[in-house]
Amino acid sequence: MTEAQSPAADLASLELEAASAARAAAAYGSDALILCDRLVRVYAADGVEVQALQGLDLLIRPGELTAIVGASGSGKSTLLNILSGLDRPTAGRARVADHDLLTMKGRERLRYRRETVGFIWQQTGRNLLPYLDAQENIETPLQLAGVRRGERRRRAQELLELLGVAQCAGRRPEQLSGGEQQRVAIGVALANRPKVVLADEPTGELDTASADTVFQALRTVNQELGVAVLIVTHDEQVSGQVPRTVQIRGGRTSSEVLRTEFGERSTAQEYAVLDRGGRIQLPPEYVAALNLRDRVRLGLEPEQITVRADEQEPRI
Ligand SMILES: Nc1ncnc2c1ncn2[C@@H]1O[C@H](COP(=O)(O)OP(=O)(O)OP(=O)(O)O)[C@@H](O)[C@H]1O
């Protein structure tokens, strides 16, 4: 028989637990550049609710190059729109470089979008102003940030050079190929030295060769400028060449692939993501292979946890 604790002792132990939970929450991702903690985004359209993000956890360190993959409708663009400051989460925590994306308002949001993040859309026509040439397009965000003319010019030329499109400086978007437009768009995104560049299917409208030059440009930017790059992509050529690929399923991060080397000596290891509530998502093919449903039996063994079908459950 256990001895009943006094109410005061109960309260003290509850307070200790609460304090330790608060410390753990504060410590989670404290060294990350991007933190998403149980992020939720619910859209309400015509009285119907769509839960686009359902408690998504994600940490990105400064200078990481990461691909985000997932089926259509899994929540990738929703996540990127939130991280870019265009959209607001419904609940949870989202922080990028000390900016709280839930509470951030007016001026801070504008400064955040101008200086902390750079964004590249899939549609080449959406990234550049059609009546300005490549150089002027890159100078525009610098001008908005109040940078002087000489410095604007120097910065734009330096970026055009780095991205391999110096010869395009005086051409307007319609005089550039799709791949060149996207590389100039990377220049626009980088103009104000952001900490992170977000790219939503940046190679989606391009042929394989142009897609490769755009991806290589993003890689150069990541390596030479140390800026974190997050690319949403369906392109396996891209996701197969980054150190980290995060898979989103049903509005949550479900698995990750980490690669240590590239090319012929490439090694890749796939991991399931264990969220902060101890949940993992089983891959649908595993669930189908064992015909798992409703309830499963878990077993703890010295070095592994097993998941078995519930044999007592009558199957129809
Ligand atoms: N503005 C909106 N209003 C209502 N529902 C929306 C809105 N935007 C997205 N959704 C819904 O939210 C879910 C996630 O959409 P999201 O665009 O983030 O997916 P995705 O993974 O980027 O898909 P895709 O690969 O097709 O671009 C989908 O069910 C989508 O229909």
Automatic annotation (TrEMBL):
<dbReference type="InterPro" id="IPR027417">
    <property type="entry name" value="P-loop_NTPase"/>
</dbReference>
<dbReference type="Pfam" id="PF00005">
    <property type="entry name" value="ABC_tran"/>
</dbReference>
<dbReference type="GO" id="GO:0005886">
    <property type="term" value="C:plasma membrane"/>
</dbReference>
<dbReference type="GO" id="GO:0022857">
    <property type="term" value="F:transmembrane transporter activity"/>
</dbReference>
<keyword id="KW-0547">Nucleotide-binding</keyword>
<keyword id="KW-0067">ATP-binding</keyword>
<dbReference type="InterPro" id="IPR017911">
    <property type="entry name" value="MacB-like_ATP-bd"/>
</dbReference>
<feature type="domain" description="ABC transporter">
    <location>
        <begin position="37"/>
        <end position="275"/>
    </location>
</feature>
<dbReference type="InterPro" id="IPR003439">
    <property type="entry name" value="ABC_transporter-like_ATP-bd"/>
</dbReference>
<protein>
    <submittedName>
        <fullName>ABC transporter ATP-binding protein</fullName>
    </submittedName>
</protein>
<dbReference type="InterPro" id="IPR017871">
    <property type="entry name" value="ABC_transporter-like_CS"/>
</dbReference>
<dbReference type="InterPro" id="IPR015854">
    <property type="entry name" value="ABC_transpr_LolD-like"/>
</dbReference>
<keyword id="KW-0813">Transport</keyword>
<dbReference type="InterPro" id="IPR003593">
    <property type="entry name" value="AAA+_ATPase"/>
</dbReference>
<dbReference type="GO" id="GO:0005524">
    <property type="term" value="F:ATP binding"/>
</dbReference>
<dbReference type="GO" id="GO:0016887">
    <property type="term" value="F:ATP hydrolysis activity"/>
</dbReference>
